[in-house]
Amino acid sequence: MDELILIKPFSPKSDSTERLDFILERCLKKYDYDVITTAEQLGKGNVAGKRLLFAVPIGEVGINLEYYRIIETLRGKNDCLSECFGAVITDGKSELYTKSVARELALCANMAGCTFVGKSLVEGAGALKNYNVIAKNLSSDNTTAYVVSAEMLVDALMNFKQPVKNCPRVLMIHAGSREKSNTIMLWDMVRKHLRGISVNEISLQDGEIKDCIGCPYVTCLHYGEQESCFYGGIITEKVYPAILSCDVLVIASPNYNDAVPAYISAFINRLTSLVRVNQLSEKQLFAVVVSGYSGGDLVAMQLIGALNMNKPFILPARFAFFGTANETGEIKQTPDIDKMAEEFAQNMLKQIKK
What domains are defined for the chain? Predict the structure, then answer.
C-alpha cells in the first residue's frame, strides 16, 4: 500500500464529482496513491501510519451517503487512523455545507487518531466565489486558484513532520474564573501530569477584549508587521508575544450556547493580523471543553474550523478532552476523571515532547 491514500466517498451522481475529479487529477499528479471509496474498504484496510487525503463530493444538497457510512466507521473504530496525517478537500455545487462537512469529518478522524496539518481544508463551494481573493493575488481565474490551493495542500500533507521539542512551551488560554470554572478545574487535572514542560496561562478576563473590527487587508497587514492590532490591549501586549513564543496552544473553553465564550471568540478573530506576517505553522492545538449538558463536539468543531482550517495550527490526534458538569466542582465527581485527565496529558506529551 502506498504512503498516500485518497479517501473519496463514492457518489452515484457523476455530475457531483466532475469538478473534484479534475482537481484531484491535477493536485495528485506527482504522487502514487491508493484509493478508498467505501466505508467497507476503510474498515477492512490497514491505513494506520499513512497520509490521508479526504476528498468529499457533496453535490447540491450537501449529502453524500457513503461519507456518512465512513463517519460511522471512524466513530466505531477509535484507533483505526492511529499515526495518520490528514488533510481535507470538500466540493459542492452550493455555497453551503462544504465547511460543516469538513469540520465534522476532521473531528471524527482526529478522535480516531489522525493528525491534521495546519490550514487543512481546501473547499470548492458553488461557483468558487471563495477563491476571488486568491485568484486576484495569483492573477488567475478562480478554478486555477482552486487547483493551486489543492496542490499546496497535498504538498503540505506529503512533507508534513509533526514537531516535537525537548522542552515544549505550552500556552493555555481561558476566560473563566479559577474559583468556579469546571473547565479550569479539568485543565488543572491535566496540567499536573504535564511534567518536563513549560506551561504559561493567560486569562482573557485580565483585560477588556474587543472583537475584530474587520480592518481592510492593508491596514491589518500594517499592524501585523508591528505584531500589533488596531485595538491593542491585552491581546497585543500579552497574548501575541505568548503565542509567538509557545509551541503548543491549549484552549480551555466552556460550552456557552454550543459555542466558545465571547472573549475566546474575540481572541481567535484578533489573531488574524498576527497570522498575516507569522507562519505559526509548527504550533499545535489542544482543547479542554466542558459542557453543562451536551454539545462539546460543536465547540471542538468551532475550534477546528477557526484555528486549524482557517488558521495554521496543527491538529494533533485526539486534540480535545471533553467533560460534562454544571454545578461548581461537579467535574471532580465524574467517574475516573483523574485517570482520563492523565491519559489526555500522556497523549499530549507523546505528540509534543521528544
Answer: 4-159 (3.40.50.360), 169-352 (3.40.50.360)
